[in-house]
Amino acid sequence: MKTLYLDCGMGAAGDMLAAALLELVPQKEDFLRRFAALGIPGVEAKVEPSVKCGITGTHFSVSVHGQEETSQDVHDHEHGHDHEHGHDHEHSHDHEHGHDHEHGHDHEHSHDHEHGHDHEHSHDHEHSHDHEHGHSHEHGHGHHHHSGMADIAHIVGHLDVPEKVKEDVLAVYGLIAQAESRAHGVPVEQIHFHEVGSLDAVADITAVCMLMAELAPEQVVASPVHVGSGKVRCAHGVLPVPAPATAYILEDVPIYGGKIQGELCTPTGAALLKHFATRFGDMPVMRIRKVGYGMGKKDFEAANCVRVLWGETQEEAGQIVELSCNMDDMTGEEMGFAMDRLFEAGALDVYTLPISMKKSRPGILLRVMCRPEDREKMVEQIFRHTTTLGVRESHMGRYTLKRQMEQVETPWGTIGEKTAQGYGTERSKYEYEDLAALAIREGVSLRQARAMVEKKK
User: Fold this and answer.
1) Residue of 10, 8, 200 whose CA lies nearest to 93
2) Contact between residue 138 and residue 265 where contact means Cβ atoms under 8 Å apart
3) CA 235 to CA 98: how far, in whole Å?
4) What is the distance between the alpha carbons of residues 219 and 312, in angstroms, rounded to a whole number?
5) Beta-bridge mates of residue 368
6) How many other C-beta atoms can be found within 10 angstroms of the C-beta atom of residue 179?
7) CB 121 within 8 A of CB 98
8) Do residues 128 and 156 lie in contact, with contact meaning Cβ atoms separated by under 8 Å?
9) 175-221 pLDDT per residue, tens
10) Distance CA 222, CA 278 (A)
11) CA neighbor of 305 nearest in space, from 319, 317, 295
């Protein structure tokens, strides 16, 4: 199984995830050309090598109308401020920057003078700035605009990317908007994002979604997320880490703080993890094929990076219950009726075997395969529809290929095709009922009907 493991031990941000995934694709330059050709308004992406604690990786940065957002984190002992800035965490300090105003301040201030504008539009940015972002966006330029979800949807809808990528981008952005809606107590429709921050986040999210589509992992496992610790100063004052929107997004996700002072996981990074992770936990046993490092700009005692590992894992054995019983006093009709009822109740498989019983009587061995949670229901059905006086139970492992049903369009209509893959094997088979119906309509044999479909596929 193609598996992607995301090591978030130093946090997560959109640009860091994009940089790490970019190291996995074989044609990096081709991807960057296609990304640049998307035409996200005013956005320009740059990729450069970066070294953290002796490890070489990639730094992915985005500028909007020539402006690249940067955060200025300050240690308490340096400036006497509460916002533990000075750490390289790609954060999104739009955090609650809540200014709907087109004012020209640079967001290192506490903005106590919010002019009453933190009502409908004060929920701006728990997320926008994922590149060490900060607070120097288009402020002071006199043309600082805001975008709502409808504006984001309009931009994404016009990108030259597959529909699945568009759906992923909007789903990730939707997680951020919903979190900010909860944090600020206003409807999602009233959430607005600063222009630079929103376009920069769209670029990060789009890059990650495009890369995930190209890699097409069958499962994505993410480690528990290191969110940082301490406090951060935002428009509404000093807030704890993780910031409110990040905390809402990371509900039901394993997180921890640690000793590093500052915000290590941004809302954009959190939303990408929440959307794509199949599960959170330890790295599975896997055969690693590639490793990628996505770096931040600043330095900590530990490497400021997101690490991704790409490889294969074996399918884990599922659990199955086998129920069995012997009977020598049921007719074939009665047994057939009982088998149908068991299938209807959810049995995975039901079959019989001829056996010899006491006093040399010919009998029937009935075996029912079911999921562990269906065991009681199956036992009830067996006692209801057979003459047995007892049922035996066995537990065992079960290995299966990953299966899915596809529809094949042919000149004779739609034919179902079941595909299965895993353990280095891939196979497919047309649905019997569809082939049989085609054979009857065309007056041919089943084998001929199959050959007709294969020829026109």
Assistant:
1) 200
2) no
3) 6
4) 10
5) 323, 350
6) 28
7) yes
8) no
9) 988 888 888 888 877 766 654 457 778 889 999 999 999 999 989 99
10) 8
11) 295
